[in-house]
């Protein structure tokens, strides 16, 4: 919550006391609710620092996926009428043998990373079973699906 509030405050042209009060009034109850929710479901995450390396491919994927999406949108419908709708469904297998808190964190952060790019969306995630199911509108570099599965 602190990171999201910080990003919001950074987007303001100038920060005033009323902005800070509103930010705190929104962030603190949300943070408390998130913590209570995590405790209610028994959630426990153990993220790894090396996963911060996913941010570089994500930063590259956003403009690359955006360009691919514009190309898909610019094609006339008749050009791919026989091919069906653009995109594909795929299943990403996560590394086996991770402790439950690490696997839960990987699933959550991988879902966030993959869905943050405009060309893909995680449609199902089951940390107990292992895979992530996603819809990918355009494939190509930097292949976030492969990045998060390593």
Helix-residue proportion:
40-55%
Estimated share of beta-strand residues: 5-15%
What is the 3D shape?
globular
- Give the domain tally: 2
Estimate the mean pLDDT confidence: 83
DSSP E strands, number: 3
Radius of gyration: 19 Å
- How do the SSEs run, as a string of H and E? HHHEHEEH
Quickly give the structural class: alpha+beta
Q: How would a textbook summarize the main sheet?
A: 3 strands, antiparallel
Give the low-pLDDT segments. none
Widest sheet: strand ordering: 1-3-2
Tally of alpha and pi helices: 5
Q: Give the N-terminus to C-terminus distance in angstroms.
A: 27 Å
Question: How would you sum up this structure in a few lines?
Answer:
This protein is an alpha+beta fold. It has helices at residues 2-11, 17-40, 55-74, 100-116, 144-149; strands spanning 88-93, 120-125, 131-136. A hairpin with a 5-residue loop joins strand 2 (120-125) and strand 3.
Features:
51% helix, 3-stranded antiparallel β-sheet, alpha+beta, globular, 150 residues, 2 domains, single chain
Could you explain the architecture of this structure?
The protein is 51% helix and 12% strand. It is built from five helices and three strands, in the order αααβαββα. It has helices at 2-11, 17-40, 55-74, 100-116, 144-149; strands at 88-93, 120-125, 131-136. A hairpin with a 5-residue loop joins β2 and β3. The protein is globular, with a radius of gyration of 19 Å. The model has no long low-confidence stretch (mean pLDDT 83).
């Amino acid at each position: 919550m602190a990171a999201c509030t910080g990003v919001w405050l950074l987007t303001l042209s100038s920060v005033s006391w009323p902005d800070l009060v509103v930010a705190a009034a929104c962030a603190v109850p949300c943070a408390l609710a998130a913590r209570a929710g995590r405790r209610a479901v028994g959630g426990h995450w153990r993220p790894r620092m090396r996963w911060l390396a996913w941010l570089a491919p994500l930063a590259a994927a956003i403009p690359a996926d955006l360009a691919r999406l514009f190309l898909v949108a610019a094609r006339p419908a008749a050009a791919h009428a026989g091919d069906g709708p653009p995109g594909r469904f795929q299943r990403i297998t996560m590394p086996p043998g991770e402790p439950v808190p690490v696997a839960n964190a990987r699933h959550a952060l991988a879902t966030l990373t993959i869905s943050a790019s405009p060309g893909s969306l995680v449609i199902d995630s089951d940390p107990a079973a292992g895979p992530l199911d996603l819809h990918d509108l355009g494939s190509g570099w930097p292949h976030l699906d492969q990045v998060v599965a390593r």
